[in-house]
Write a structure and sequence with these properties.
16% of the residues lie in helices and 35% in strands. It is of the alpha+beta class. The chain has a domain at 59-146: predicted glycosyltransferase like domains (Thrombin, subunit H), CATH 2.40.10. Strands 1-2-3-6-5-4 form a 6-stranded antiparallel β-barrel. It is globular. The termini are far apart.
Length: 148
């Protein structure tokens, strides 16, 4: 005997199982099953980045305006931004700056000038969010960050 039959009850069938599953699922067509996790809005939290961070010991220059340049050291960097340890000086949150990265990669000297926005200011440095950059810069940053 492959099915257990009890008195007064009929054995479970595929049809009755489908009825119970149908009752457990949301009735509204707007709700999907399984429910999706909430989407984080990274624009509201400057501490969150959308790409992986890498610790890089590179020296950088932050250009602000036409005359102000500040030297700093990258604490961590990702494809979307960086945290630079430096003297904050006259920088304000939301200020447009230029992130100048000079380094050597596989014996070749690289220099990248990335547009950036100051997203957070702390006592010992600033968090920057990069603007748009070209395909060559993208490729070289990927190699620098992830192909070590």
């Amino acid at each position: 005997m492959d099915r257990k039959i009890t008195r007064g009850r009929r054995p479970a069938t595929a049809l009755s199982d489908a009825v119970w599953i149908g009752r457990a699922l949301p009735q509204s067509s707007e709700q999907a099953w399984p429910p999706k996790p909430p989407v984080r809005d990274h624009s509201k939290d400057p501490h969150l980045r959308t790409s992986l961070r890498a610790e890089l010991p590179y020296e950088v220059i932050i250009n602000h305006g036409m005359t102000i340049s500040c030297a700093g050291r990258v604490r961590d960097m990702s494809m979307s931004g960086a945290f630079v340890e430096m003297d904050v000086g006259d920088l304000d949150e939301g200020a447009a700056v230029e992130f100048v990265l000079k380094c050597f990669y596989k014996g070749e000297r690289m220099e990248h000038r990335l547009p950036a926005t100051v997203t957070r200011i702390q006592q010992y440095g600033v968090a920057l969010k990069f603007g748009r950059y070209d395909d060559e810069t993208y490729t070289q940053l990927v190699n620098l960050l992830y192909a070590r």
